[in-house]
Design goal:
The chain has 378 residues and is of the alpha+beta class. The chain is built from 12 helices and 17 strands.
Length: 378
């Protein structure tokens, strides 16, 4: 006779400031989440309740105040090593039928809920964590960059980033201009205005580790009425840059249960091919080859064609999508990692990507989905 233990604990994983631990309690699979931040715990509970009315989310069985923080006990969905997340469908050489099905379901769910809940709101009533708070005084932009100067690319372009605006940037044969200080001022000013924002009920941080397969949503501290362009920029930038390249490079511990991620990092890492200065013309020459794996291209294509474009056609038929997405994209480039902490090559590519995003010629249909396919089809 086999006796099943009353309590079985799995490995503890750290995600940012939180701890996650799978638990089997009396045969019931649970996921325990521990957070020290009382405000974040309240936002998580509130966000879960809001999201549960419209999206598939694991049940929140209980939440407790414990020494030093809060403990939340969720239903644990099936999963395992390299299983259970959208990420696992992206960690492949070619897009699978499961990936196409998952993206169809994801975009259908989001399209229906966004169009049903969309309204133009005062930014004071929008979830502010990922954008407004980071641009506010004392937020990440200040923490990372206020009063700081660093080299554009140590050993490659040994000029301080504060002098970027005095140079022409020739990026892959195209002329650009990027004034570092002016860009930071513009971002702060943009997210300090009281201009109404188009919002809808979403999860807010739709990364490939926050989306389950079969489809469900995890992580709720940013769930609620979010900026719709911010939601779009978040998924598109994460799918095309953060998830396959930067996060596994700089936060590998996040993928301890999904090690297949690392085999696909080269397929998603841009290749820097040229970096030099022409002092006679005050020109920085930067050539890089963007890379994006076929599954990630497929996911971005589906997201754009089946969600971004239909929602934009309904809500902003006469607006320029590039202008709507630009401030949110710039904030994702600058407000996730401190560029000064990255390698010279990665920092230079991200500065080039920022310059391209800030350009009047910025075209999101090619920006997020380079290489073989033109991706989003008009």
């Amino acid at each position: 006779m086999t006796i099943r233990p009353l309590l079985r604990l799995g490995p503890v994983r750290r995600f940012t400031r939180n701890l996650l631990c799978p638990v089997d309690l009396l045969g019931r699979p649970l996921l325990l989440k521990y957070t020290r931040d009382a405000t974040e715990a309240r936002e998580e509970i509130r966000g879960h309740a809001q999201l549960a009315r419209h999206y598939r989310v694991p049940a929140l069985h209980t939440h407790l105040r414990v020494p030093g923080g809060h403990l939340l006990a969720y239903e644990r969905l099936p999963g395992g090593t390299d299983q259970g997340l959208l990420l696992d469908l992206l960690n492949a050489d070619e897009p699978s039928g499961d990936l196409h099905t998952s993206m169809d379901r994801l975009t259908t769910a989001y399209r229906e809920v966004i169009l049903a809940t969309a309204w133009s709101a005062d930014p004071a009533h929008v979830v502010r964590k990922l954008y407004w708070d980071r641009a506010a005084p004392g937020g990440r932009l200040d923490t990372y960059y206020a009063g700081e100067d660093f080299l554009i690319a140590d050993g490659l372009i040994d000029l301080p980033v504060s002098r970027l605006g005095t140079y022409t940037l020739n990026i892959n044969g195209r002329r650009h201009h990027l004034d570092w200080a002016a860009t930071l001022r513009w971002l702060r000013a943009h997210f300090a205005t009281a201009e109404p924002v188009w919002t809808a009920l979403t999860q807010g941080d739709p990364t490939d580790v926050n989306l389950a397969h079969p489809l469900a949503w995890f992580d709720y501290d940013t769930a609620g009425m979010n900026s719709i362009p911010g939601e779009f920029a978040n998924f598109l930038w994460y799918a095309s840059a953060l998830g396959g390249w930067l996060v596994p490079t700089y936060n590998p511990a996040a993928f301890a249960d999904h090690p297949a991620t690392f085999a696909h990092v080269p397929a998603n890492t841009p290749e820097l091919r040229r970096a030099d200065v022409d002092p006679t013309t005050s020109t920085l020459h930067i050539d890089y080859a963007p890379r994006l794996s076929a599954p990630r291209r497929a996911a971005v294509t589906a997201y754009w064609n089946q969600l971004v474009q239909p929602v934009a056609d309904r809500l902003w038929p006469d607006a320029d999508l590039a202008n709507l997405l630009r401030p949110y994209l710039a904030m994702r480039i600058l407000g996730v990692y401190n560029l000064a902490d990255l390698t010279s090559e990665d920092r230079l590519v991200l500065l080039a990507r920022l310059a391209e995003a800030m350009s009047p010629a910025f075209d999101p249909t090619t920006y997020f989905c380079p290489l073989e396919s033109s991706c989003p089809v008009p």
